[in-house]
Amino acid sequence: MSLRIVSQSMLNAWNQTLIRGMSTQGGSKNIGFVGLGNMGGHMASNLIKAGHKLHVFDISKPACDSLKAKGATVYAKTAELAQNVDFLFTMLPNNDIVDASYEEMTANGVNKNTIFIDSSTIDPTLVKSLQKRISAKGARFIDAPVSGGVPGAEQATLTFMVGGTEAEYNAVKAVLECMGKRITHCGDYGMGQAAKLANNMMLAISMIGVSEAMNLAMRLGLNPKTFAEIINSSTGRCWASEMYNPVPGVTPTAPANNSYKGGFSTDLITKDLGLASGVATSSNTPIPMGALAHQIYRTLKSQGLGSKDFSIVYDFMKNEKY
Amino acid sequence: MSLRIVSQSMLNAWNQTLIRGMSTQGGSKNIGFVGLGNMGGHMASNLIKAGHKLHVFDISKPACDSLKAKGATVYAKTAELAQNVDFLFTMLPNNDIVDASYEEMTANGVNKNTIFIDSSTIDPTLVKSLQKRISAKGARFIDAPVSGGVPGAEQATLTFMVGGTEAEYNAVKAVLECMGKRITHCGDYGMGQAAKLANNMMLAISMIGVSEAMNLAMRLGLNPKTFAEIINSSTGRCWASEMYNPVPGVTPTAPANNSYKGGFSTDLITKDLGLASGVATSSNTPIPMGALAHQIYRTLKSQGLGSKDFSIVYDFMKNEKY
Amino acid sequence: MSLRIVSQSMLNAWNQTLIRGMSTQGGSKNIGFVGLGNMGGHMASNLIKAGHKLHVFDISKPACDSLKAKGATVYAKTAELAQNVDFLFTMLPNNDIVDASYEEMTANGVNKNTIFIDSSTIDPTLVKSLQKRISAKGARFIDAPVSGGVPGAEQATLTFMVGGTEAEYNAVKAVLECMGKRITHCGDYGMGQAAKLANNMMLAISMIGVSEAMNLAMRLGLNPKTFAEIINSSTGRCWASEMYNPVPGVTPTAPANNSYKGGFSTDLITKDLGLASGVATSSNTPIPMGALAHQIYRTLKSQGLGSKDFSIVYDFMKNEKY
Amino acid sequence: MSLRIVSQSMLNAWNQTLIRGMSTQGGSKNIGFVGLGNMGGHMASNLIKAGHKLHVFDISKPACDSLKAKGATVYAKTAELAQNVDFLFTMLPNNDIVDASYEEMTANGVNKNTIFIDSSTIDPTLVKSLQKRISAKGARFIDAPVSGGVPGAEQATLTFMVGGTEAEYNAVKAVLECMGKRITHCGDYGMGQAAKLANNMMLAISMIGVSEAMNLAMRLGLNPKTFAEIINSSTGRCWASEMYNPVPGVTPTAPANNSYKGGFSTDLITKDLGLASGVATSSNTPIPMGALAHQIYRTLKSQGLGSKDFSIVYDFMKNEKY
Lengths: 322, 322, 322, 322
Hints:
- By secondary structure, chain A is α/β, with parallel strands linked by helices.
- Chain A folds into 2 domains: 2-189, Rossmann fold, CATH 3.40.50; 195-318, N-(1-d-carboxylethyl)-l-norvaline Dehydrogenase, domain 2.
- Chain A is built from 14 helices and 9 strands.
- Chain A has helices at residues 2-25, 40-49, 61-69, 78-83, 95-106, 124-136, 149-154, 166-177, 191-219, 224-232, 239-243, 266-282, 288-305, 312-318, and strands spanning 30-34, 53-57, 73-74, 87-90, 115-118, 140-143, 146-147, 158-163, 180-187.
- Chain A has a 6-stranded parallel β-sheet with strand order 3-2-1-4-5-6. In chain A, strands 7-8-9 form a 3-stranded mixed β-sheet.
- In chain A, helix 6 links the parallel strand 5 (115-118) and strand 6.
- Chain A is elongated, with a radius of gyration of 22 Å.
- At the A-D interface, helix 12 and helix 13 of A face helix 12 and helix 13 of D.
- Chains A, B, C, D: Pathway: Amino-acid degradation; L-valine degradation.
- Chains A, B, C, D: It catalyses: 3-hydroxy-2-methylpropanoate + NAD(+) = 2-methyl-3-oxopropanoate + NADH + H(+).
- Chains A, B, C, D: One of its GO terms (cellular component) is mitochondrion.
- Chains A, B, C, D: Keywords: Branched-chain amino acid catabolism, Mitochondrion, NAD, Oxidoreductase, Transit peptide.
């Protein structure tokens, strides 16, 4: 028993050394994951597949059980979890929950070796405030929101938009690569979120624009496939027209061909536009199209279409119920 | 000297033969061109370069003189001009002038071999009405509006969007290829215009969207080049962000780097949105983003920016005159 | 037979004198009415009630029969009708029908004593063009569109917005007063239409604004009646909030309390906004709110709400189908 | 001595009665005022004029000196000030400053007789949270934002929109009447702010609508005064068209006749729309017109017009710089 204690302590020391060595060269890490929802569950699984040791928490017992079955250690308290990990990911629904979660995890001090990485979509201002609070306690905090949706999370093909120092970016890159295929350094703290919000605002606008243009072209007599080809080889092309056309029958893999199920929900794009709208207000940035897009998706949500892919805006606009 | 004459005449004969061989089956045609403005002048010149015999008309004498110097025959009356040509192009500023021009050209009958091709940007409804009037007289009429702007007209790299029958499309393709590099058959009469208007509406929307997203990202602290790279490899990308970024310093060839000179003027995109808005009204098509874009460019025009490239919308929005 | 001719000619002379006398003091006139729809039928009836002799035309036989039963003379040809009247009203659905109707009525000359009065809602540009054509033939033409809807037409409480000279306004005022209670001289030809379109654009905007403000206030916890009282005694008040509140239970007489039936249909306000949008485009007038309002009503129409009162926009926006 | 005790107790009883009596009939109170800016300075002065004893605080020494000269007691610490007053008004620039101010004033306990009244314009959510915090400490807190601007503050003609219980409304009414002429009970805590934000959103929308309608009417040829009369007696009328017409020469007392100076600044309406937009987002309320209005005023602000009266939106839109 004493032997076991000794060897456990030796093992721990060995582990610590190994981890420190690995943090630039790769290798198995102790990784925390708080938030095991549609996205987080897949992301945590991919970290296990890549050989890392996962320490997880979620308020949903089934979500925890699913990760436990794959080898993760489940915690009842995030504060305890946070003490045991090299990297700690949070993947949570909104500003308030992210804020409360960090409050809880760091109230009684932090493990100074931990890098906290928030992959939720939140206000860049909150990122900056969390970074200050956590760095004041001696640990590090960066933002790394994602795009790519549930399929990207499942297939480990997410894009990560990282806000932090060059050194922090380098320190987390290898771990992020277990979950994504494009890891972009956007700038300082909060710039990952800023990039995500501005990109998604553009996406939100262009999806409505494509829906209007396709609908108009079709009502004027054009064949939708013909018009999509024209636009896609011309100045009107965009990701939404090429890769995710909202008209059924045009892009085979798009949600439009699957009754607008799956994909990127109207609820989520509405949430992102709410955040973008907030930072536009605080920075006095005119966003007439972004603001109108926000209201249009909000209207779709009110009409009961919140859980559908956001390209359903085409379907809504094409209606002719006379 | 006689040698020179002979060799010149031989050269001409050789050229004619070569040209005839080069077009698919045709060869040198008698082509009419009515409207020798910024676009039409270059287009007519390119037809001459391709070996065709040009018959031209414009209300501007210098415009006519310039084409005459290149070998074109200048007419005082378009009705007479129209009797002498295989193909007749019109490239005119608006619905009313196009309508009046066809009225004049066809009032006293038509040459039944002539194919009239309108490359102006007009209402698809007018196209259909002109097609009926002209086919009733025994000739043919199709729409073939262009995109690519003055540089495209000069370098013969325009895109033509053709509305007409398959046979008519095939009949005009070789001639259009003397002026453009992409000749698309969009569908029946008016569908060329419909495609152009819907494409340009999308372009108008995405340019404002990109301007808002770039401006927001920059005010939040992102570097414009970094953000442009992120958006261009992500779901927010569009032609305007990739090829024609409105922020100076991002796309080297864009008008943004040349004080928003040249390019596609705010006046012209406002005109196209006016036409798109008209057909959206008559077809009861909701175009919230298109309508807002229309008002934004109209406001720029009112602010004295009508002659600037339409990407100046970024410059207008980024202002902070406190 | 000669007696008959003589007496007819005497009768005519007597009639002319009588008409001249009446035209300033009132008295029975020969009045034509072309277009006996929901509005026109009531208006023509009110002219009969006021003692005038009505000469009517409509493509609907029941509409004609109804007026015949009240004493009107029904015509098969408007050209013939127009020869027999002092005043001729047109109350027709749109630009094209108004244009065609005047073409038909005046093709073979006009009775130079006739004042043509168009009470339809049409483009002010068409008004000006009709005025030129008709005055060139020797008769007079003015615009006098109405507001007040079917109830106003029925109860003879319409507002007439008159475009024409002071003399013409004075010449028609007494007749218009048989159908309305407010006869406003707006200015020269077309200014009646201009006033109506600009007023209705404002109405369209404020109805949506009130709907948004009421809905927001209620979602934040305010009682709708309390909030309506606050707004109506404050800077947010408008006709739509005071007289026609879109929230059921607030204004007892408003269509909101009758399942949004009756009133001013979404179809009609959409039509008026289409005309306003057209003249804004041709006059380069920025109308961002007007254009957005247009798209919102157009969307309601597409959602099958075209025949409902336009205040149904509140009902549409308040939905929460989760 | 016993007499004295008796009389002291009688005096206390009498005082209580008096206070109770005063609370409906008036009488001199100890009133705190935190925030002596453009609005607050005048409001505090009016309380002095009405016979109350003022206890004031502001970070600006001149603002404090000005009130001191009128008889107010100036404090260095708001916590101390708050202990000495029956009513304490806060009139501060934004959410954060209001929040911080209450934190400071109540950190070391409260005088349980004090009614705190916030007349700033802030988020209704913050009102509810402040009410909970302060009532938990034993004092009362209500919201009573104002409309009427600097002239209303100066002339004691403000409108107060009160959120709180019926009893609290009755308790503060007499004091508010020293500063305003219309004291409205809007509902429970936060409902004063909710009413103000929803009313001002409507005002913001209708001012732009009136500007568009006036501009359109004028460009079509109508005289602005004639059109204003038409609209004001018709369905397009609103407070902005009647009392505050944005076209110079129409409403003599409007800022439009004074180079858009004074009045209600573009900066302030933009701020209010930012708050309205925030609560619309959190309550999922569609506000398409409100959101567009927000962006339009924000654009005016960016163009350097933030300090001008918000009716300058007309002047901006009417521009024709060709």
